[in-house]
Amino acid sequence: MIVAGRPLVVCTDFSGQQVFTWDPAEDRWTAHQLENPYGPVEKTMTGGCLLEIGAAVIDGRVVVGGGGYEQPFAQWDLETGAVRTYIRADHGGLAKVSTVELAGRPWFVCGDSSMPATVRLWDAAQRDALIEDEEARNEGYDPEDYLQIEHVAAPLERFGHVDSISGLASGTFRGRSVVVSGGVDGQVMMWDLDEKAPVVQFEPLDTIRGVGLVTVDGQVRVVAAEQRCVTLGDPDTGTWDEPIEMSEDPEAEDDYEDDDEDEGIECMTVGVVAGRPIAVTGSGDGTVCCWDLAGRRLLGEPFAGHDGEVFAVRITELDGRAVALTAGRDSHIRVWHLDQR
Q: What domains can be seen in the chain, in order of their start residue?
């Protein structure tokens, strides 16, 4: 994200109720302790562990929104760590979170980890408010008994998947704001955020590892990552092109089938670098691959450097150069130059 004209990376390390920021220009890390909206750690379903985080700028302040596989969505002021809004603990967990701009305002797009799973929109500017029970106050009850949180963090609209959401992306299609969702159930859907209506449901694939939306050869295409391939889809018809495979070597494929399935793709992002639409994927074996979406091919050999699974990837620009930022379970964020591909 860009804050005051400077790039800022916001992330979580899966170890508690903390968010970290990295200023690439100064290579400076800052830890931000967030309040737990659901009470003491021992009372939460996950021990207060954040697994997914998104960020937006509201009135000049950074607001983060996130949760965990069994921890519902909440929003915080990054600088103070104070809770801005949260949802009831019986709501279910959060699998994915992203941000989208609607009518000039930032929203969080969230995907449930539950079955069935729902895609939800949360107003990033929304805050909870204390409300008074007038009758209880008049009868002399202690303020702690009649002051309650008004749970205004309710979804604007709901969209469904059979299983946990595993990929979210937003963009524009035919002049309309849309979100693309992919699920563990293999379903990929596009939704019109203004009309609150589905645009298309694609033919089912295997488990989705990530989704994207990008223009290829002048046409908007949905991109889906499966375990060993990346596939482009036509949002006008809901059909898929032939997949772009990670390896076409039969012997390599046979070797792979004997390995742990976690060595396949775990995450994906898409973007345009030097006028060329690309996808970047991170894998369970720690490698990072670049894909030429127009040429339907891999771009060179995979980047290698992570020790273990790569679970997050973003395309951005640093010092005027296109880069991919990847985060791994080795507790490292790495920067890869994409203009050399």
A: 1-156 (2.40.128)
